[in-house]
Write a structure and sequence with these properties.
The structure is a homotetramer.
Chain A (H helix, E strand, L loop, with lengths): L5 H4 L6 E4 L1 H4 L5 H15 L6 E4 L46 H9 L3 E7 L2 E2 H5 L11 H4 E6 L6 E4 L6 H15 L3 E5 L15 H13 L5 E4 L9 H7 L2 E3 L8 H14 L8 E3 L31 H14 L3 E3 L8 H7 L2 H9 E9 L3 E8 L5 E7 L5 E6 L8 E6 L4 E7 L1 E6 L4 E6 L1
Parallel strand pairs in A: 1-2, 1-11, 2-3, 3-7, 7-8, 8-9, 9-10
Antiparallel strand pairs in A: 4-6, 5-6, 12-13, 13-14, 14-19, 15-18, 16-17, 16-19
Helix pairs in contact in A: 7-8, 10-11, 11-13
């Protein structure tokens, strides 16, 4: 067996879990996290789903009160070393400076893993209060980069990596996260390193500092980078330092975005390997946008909380994510799942392809159709996904020869979970608009 | 006579004066300002020079102590309404909250006018201290735009003009400047409105707020915008709102920059009119960079404090600025002027062209030479400037017909201050490398 | 009086006329040209309209036969020196090598002037046939630039101006046009000099060669450059060499395009002066697109031949073109004009503003409204045009003070042709959606 | 064993050979090709070198006569179907329309393979002569795209793939090449598909037509695309259609270009697999630029015909090309090789790494150093290449742990061809400026 880098061992297969963003935005609370964890334990864990991830601004006590978005210059809760702590107003178990340790413990007790979101850089509050960086003689104003800021959130300054104390800051927060029992960290405002090409500052150095901090923190953690689109020319750097990186901007339940993902996957197909997972973003299925309901009027009318994807589109999405081997993070409020949604997430044959597929690549692409194939690393079966990207029912087919296959093949339909007649020469499927089929050929 | 807009009356001819930046950077003090004012009164005022302008960071007590550049997150001196006050450590007359009023008075007593520099936006300090905006119920964090920042100085946040209290801030500072007796304001980080095209935020709205604040402050003030290059496509907006706008990035004593100015002037030639002065930036002549001397070693060797322009290049610069009608702001430490520098700045015939020239435009341009002409609005004389842009001595000439002139003409050499033989058909001059000649044809 | 350059004397006021493009595309014929000339003589000439311009591809015998667009590699009619001749199939009077001379004579006899369109460069046919350039030992393949081509028409190669014989080609064609009696030349594929910024080749050198050829051809000709958008940073070069230059891409009867023109005019307002006319393109009024009728089905349905502009929009267009002082070239098939169209083109007070207005500039601009003013160079009246750019009826007003006016003023409505009550302080108009009003204040 | 696509079978390992460009430019002749073939047979064939490739403009009789560059509108030799034929003036065996068949036969007799260069598209000559496309009723002017041209060579027009007869053209030329016995085709002006992003035309469609023509021509041919840089976002399309694609613009004997190649390889490392070979371009070693000698003076002084790379730089280049698995095409005039050059090209251990290495990837990159590793697919050895990119002698090292290796390892130096002491923990080498070492660890 091939030896692997330590970083890659944290995510030998693409992570599967749930993230709070799609239903709770920046304002999730402890009860909501636990409700989703309980559902996962009961219904999803047997199929491999295991991460529960708390997304952005858990240190902001008033998140979501005035608006569904970020307050400028929000009063984040910091410890004496300028490190963010979960706000007890929203996470009662974090009281008395315990941070996320109690919550992580409860999640671990369910057999699950716990993840958190952070922003690149240091809190602006810590800078303007001139707080000390733990274990140094440095104050935050000395390591902050005054013009490296996030364009959509005002919580942080980027770090000037040339300054004494820069690495110490990242070491200090990952020391804390290790103590809490964090298994997965999603770092934001860091992935699309050329978002602002005129910027003299590069987030690449921060990625490296974070890698080093994780390697030294004493606990295994998955490192996930956001937002995308990641830059394909920087794939080497991402592969060396991270486990997951977003290949798109935020993904939502909109066919145009799903259609665009086929192009993203095409670009990134050769970069998928154990420990290295280009990330198509969350699955916006089931119940979503719950925290937007109270601002419905302000946002210009009622908010649709159920996914706007058709069932066929959801099958297409799940087929693409699974053959490409994207990480799978459910966006739904899980306790509200209906039967279709649960079945979508727990098809064992599709999830086997996600887990054991290898060398996935596109084999056909027209404006109206697409085909991908991969090979099961364990049993040698060939997986073939056919997609109808047009707005009308249509047949999609592939020549076996173009897949490098000869002779006749047994065929199993993975979504229908039934074995079809053997094929020779060509395999075809009649597909609904925006629909997909996945076959195993053996 | 044509009626004019009130804004334009503040600068019917291009302003002439002195600015502290080129010799003192961000660290000028009261004594230095007064020394230059006294020289101006004695030697330059009779020729029309009148503005004494204090450049950036007069509210920073420690400016220039550690570095010749800006400290990140510097401790600016603010009043209770978050308005910057001159630091008494550097401007003793500003003690007890008197601001620049005593200094302005002394300068006015000399028959001169007083100018200051400000940055667009509100102090970051005032934002993170949540200070109130004068005359409102608003605090600074409510009007600051968290991602509208200057890339080279960390003092300020831009203003979100959609917020209640935004205009009130600008009103409050111009009320203060009017009370001090300020005659000229150079606003920085505001002129090149498309420097960062991806930025959703536009400085155009801040320009308009400043215009409105000046119009309402009860005192006539010249409004100068920096840094450049201003965008020619926005000339209309600049003409409506400002008196001066920089057409280049910072200009220094380097032939390449001077050569590039010919292209800038070509682009902006049609935008010059009373009250509207595209600005070629300061004249880096005489003694410069005095505040860099103590960091000489750190900057990699001895600092040359005398201008690096040759005398011929200075003549070329002065000829271009004056025929184009750029504002004239001397960068030199005036008391150190030598005889050449003083003569350069006080040639009455060149300065008459600067004051009365009209319809200046380029009439010839090759890689090696250039010619400009204008017409004296009072006596009808035609001004012709010939430039040798090559690195060797060369003759430069122009056909009278190309200037729209016929017959023979009397010729006077303005730099030599003598009358030459009449010309027919063509006028020519033998010029040193990088040199110029200016003629009046009548 | 100010002396002027010879080039500028060819167009002391903005040219007014008719161009064949909007109704006949690339396939106009002699009968159509003459029909429009006769109408112009009878109805428009008294109001200053005088140019009849034959647009693109008059040397292509089969223009418009197969398609309403250009055939690739069309068989242009050339003389023995590779110069294009009008195809007698379409222009019978051009038989026996007489070119446009007979047609020009007939148009001159009506008291009108005659214009033609040409493409920058040399015919590809002449290059691949290795024809000689008149008066030289050079063949066309020696002066053609093999990669300087038009992207939308395959007739020509650009010229490599460094080659012997390059200027001779332009001299040879303008010698021919002078002999024919041409008064106006619209040169195409030449105006937007940075359309393809990666291109090492620049059309600026061709503009200069054409200028030189016209100056030497012995006949006064207006030089008009297309297509736009011209580049504002190159205004100096255009002013030195041309009389008209297009500030937009092709303009048609579409409100979005008309709305965009306000921004174009804003950018170019300072570049308007005798001999120098930024060009807003043809007026798509009345009967248009006649040559597209036979391809109607192919183009996806019936072709609307009448202008799609409302009457209010046409008033807005005419008001903007006239106060800005754009050249005026009617696109309509003139014999089909209705009463409104004729009245639109023959309002003597609006056309006086077009002829005598000076220093036109925008004085107000919001997303919904706009105001321009200019001053009558002869009688000193102030012209004020108010525009309602919104989609609903609305009042638009301007403060006299913002126009630099004081006291009370007499007001005349130029479109209504009646005198209104005097105004003090502010002038306002209630305007229909997309409508305009023009006033003279005295 | 994994099944493969037919296209990939043409190049299961990266092709090795010689190309005429670096020493003979566009003017190689039959004698020179054969001289290099004979050397290859005798000295290089035993090491795997086998392709002899004739580069650009073999149909131009006068290539290289007037200039070392391309004549505009050159008189290419065409057959009656507009297909280019080798000019007998330069390739005597091509007389009487035999084309390259006789030459290919002689090369095949030596046990070698024969390659040719072509430009994308159809000859402009065939278009303007309106020649017929073989096997169709179409003439060339009907399929040529009039504005799809190469910027640096005027021989061809691109093809409008939507036109009847477009595919027939490519079929007709590959039918001819198959009949000649061509084994390798380098297609030019086609690889960097977004070189001119404004261009509505895309070379992607031509790549697909060429792929289809090769698949149908009845002979196995390697398809190589030039020039680069290929666009990494289009890797999928290149992998589907081509065997080789250039990842750089032309590469020459200049350290700056070699240094830049490390970045190219970093970007493309995941795209290397059997049948798919990102191409670092020719190896400019030994005797080069022979055809430039006669224009020496015109080019500004004597031409250096020996490679300007130091021996250390050549080792670095060869190490990078071989561990990355670039195609290897020698640029030298082979008969002039010295002993060093021959040894450089015939190190059996380095060439084994080139042939059997797999999963090559960069493991370390600083501004001064670089390390790559791969794994021998047959014997499992780990290859490690260390590079000193600095301008001074320096030690470069790598941690075994960072390579995913543990314990101690046997080490062999492949360039020195000797076994070193075993290593534990770290492997290091003292390297000259711009030098490299390659180790096998087992």
């Amino acid at each position: 067996m091939q030896e692997m880098k330590k970083k890659d061992l944290a995510a030998l297969t693409p992570p599967m879990g749930w993230n709070s963003w799609d239903c709770f935005g920046n304002a999730v609370n402890e009860g909501q996290l636990l409700a989703n964890a309980r559902y996962m334990k009961e219904y999803l864990l047997p199929f491999g789903w295991e991460y529960v991830v708390c997304d952005i601004q858990w240190s902001e006590p008033h998140a979501g009160e005035k608006e569904p978005y970020y307050d400028p210059f929000a009063p984040l809760l910091l410890d004496e070393y300028g490190r963010q702590l979960p706000a007890p107003e929203r996470f009662p178990s974090a009281k008395e400076g315990q941070g996320f340790r109690p919550l992580a413990e409860r999640i671990h007790e369910m057999g699950l893993k716990f993840g958190i979101h952070i922003m690149r850089g240091v809190p602006r509050l810590a800078v303007h209060r001139q707080l000390p960086v733990k274990g140094t003689d440095t104050t935050y104003d000395e390591i902050a980069h005054p013009s490296s800021i996030c364009r959509w959130n005002s919580d942080m300054y980027g770090i000037d990596y040339t300054k004494e104390g820069a690495q110490a800051y990242y070491d200090s927060i990952f020391e804390l996260y290790a103590a809490w029992g964090v298994d997965y960290v999603k770092v934001d405002d860091i992935c699309n390193t050329n978002a602002y090409p005129e910027d003299p500052y590069s987030a690449e150095r921060e990625i490296e500092m974070i890698r080093k901090a994780i390697d030294g923190c004493g606990r295994t953690m998955v490192l996930s980078l956001s937002p995308g689109p990641a830059v394909i020319g920087k794939a080497w750097h991402l592969r060396e330092n991270a486990n997951l990186w977003r290949v798109t901007d935020d993904f939502w339940d909109d066919w145009k975005l799903l259609l665009a993902m086929f192009e993203r996957c095409e670009v990134w197909e050769r970069q998928v390997s154990p420990g290295c997972w280009p990330d198509c973003d969350m699955l916006p299925v089931g119940r979503l946008r719950l925290n937007y309901v109270k601002w419905a009027e302000r946002l210009g009318g009622p908010v649709e909380t159920w996914t706007k994807f058709t069932e066929d589109e959801q099958v297409t999405m799940m087929s693409l994510w699974c053959i490409f081997r994207s990480p799978l993070m459910v966006g739904a409020h899980l306790p509200d799942n209906d039967e279709f949604t649960l079945r979508l997430l727990t098809n064992p044959e599709i999830l086997r392809m996600h887990r054991f597929g290898t060398d996935a690549h596109q084999v056909l692409r027209t404006p109206e159709s697409c085909a991908w194939m991969s090979r099961d690393a364990e049993n040698g079966a060939v997986y073939l996904a056919l997609f109808n990207l047009s707005d009308e029912r249509a047949a999609v087919s592939a020549e076996l020869e173009d897949l490098g296959l000869s002779g006749s093949r047994h065929v199993r339909d993975l979504w229908e979970r039934r074995t079809l007649a053997d094929v020779i020469g060509r395999i075809a499927a009649e597909l609904p608009a925006h629909g997909a089929a996945v076959f195993a050929l053996s």
